[in-house]
Design goal:
CATH architecture: Up-down Bundle
InterPro entries: PAP2/HPO, PAP2/HPO_sf
Low-confidence stretches: 1-6, 16-30, 264-268
Protein name: Phosphatidic acid phosphatase type 2/haloperoxidase domain-containing protein
CATH class: Mainly Alpha
Number of strands: 2
Order of helices and strands: HHHHHHHHHHEE
Number of helices: 10
Number of domains: 1
Strand order of the largest sheet: 1-2
CATH topology: Vanadium-containing Chloroperoxidase, domain 1
Shape: globular
Largest sheet: 2 strands, antiparallel
Length: 268
């Protein structure tokens, strides 16, 4: 129950921030859910994918077959090189919801205080990405019910929808929601937004995606995810956020908060 309240509060915080930001006049509450429907259904339209669907599916399946072996090899390497433990514990925070909210909040404050439209738009895209990807990842987690590697001592088990019931048993929340990796999705979503908004700074995209990849890898070293969870999460985080950016690019009206009011920008 405490975990349920934690997740509900996190979602509430994101919605409140979006309402305060008020970036997109064109995206009303109805428009938000229409966009989410478009994003969800576009998963069946392979032409919408920059990363081919068949490539994602086959790679995920291939990794899932080898997941136990990959996990053992990574843990053996980690045991031989304990110096990676601290960096792993740190970089994994890039996928934490509250950390990402703080980062995007910093972009918003910069935009508000310095009239930096790029920073404000980054916050808007980032928060919307968190909600869209968050909804989809929770649906997939509840449907698959995959056991985390740390829960079964490196044994891979898929419980299906019944795993969702086990999630809510006392002390078992985080044991049956491995697929896909929510931290990885969040990290790649944030990296995609920042890379798009600051593509003119040549070092930003490679740095952002390198950090996102590190956050994904850390989910394995932290015993919370399998390699296939991480790979699929990275693709989902990237693809969904890329679609959000495309949708936002087609909007014609945007509202930017100012210290002394608002500025409405019409683009065509």
């Amino acid at each position: 129950m405490n975990r349920f309240i934690f997740v509900k509060n996190k979602i509430l915080i994101i919605f409140l921030i979006i309402n305060c930001v008020g970036i997109s006049q064109a995206e009303s509450q109805k428009g938000f859910w229409e966009n989410h429907k478009h994003i969800w259904l576009s998963g069946f339209n392979y032409k919408n994918h920059k990363i081919p669907f068949w490539c994602t599916a086959l790679t995920t399946i291939a990794l899932s077959v080898k997941d136990e072996e990959i996990y053992r090899n990574i843990k053996q390497f980690q045991n031989r090189n304990p110096s990676i433990n601290k960096p792993s514990e740190t970089i994994t925070l890039l996928g934490d919801g509250y950390v990402d909210i703080s980062i995007l909040g910093a972009f918003f404050l910069k935009g508000l205080l310095l009239n930096d439209h790029r920073a404000t738009k980054t916050a808007s895209l980032g928060f919307k990405g968190m909600i869209h990807t968050g909804i989809i990842v929770q649906v997939l987690k509840h449907v698959t019910g995959r056991q985390r590697p740390g829960a079964g001592k490196g044994k891979d088990r898929w419980h299906g929808p019944s795993g969702a019931l086990k999630r809510y048993n006392s002390g078992r929340w985080a044991l049956y929601d491995a697929f896909p990796s929510g931290h990885t999705i969040a990290a790649w979503s944030l990296a995609t937004v920042v890379s798009h908004q600051y593509a003119h700074l040549k070092y930003v995209p490679p740095l952002a995606y390198t950090l996102a990849a590190g956050a994904g890898l850390s989910r394995v070293t932290e015993d919370t995810h399998w390699a296939s969870d991480v790979f699929f999460g990275a693709v989902i985080g990237y693809e969904i956020t890329r679609q959000i950016i495309q949708i936002e690019s087609s909007e014609t009206i945007a509202v930017y908060p100012q210290r002394n009011g608002i500025q409405i920008v019409y683009a065509f």
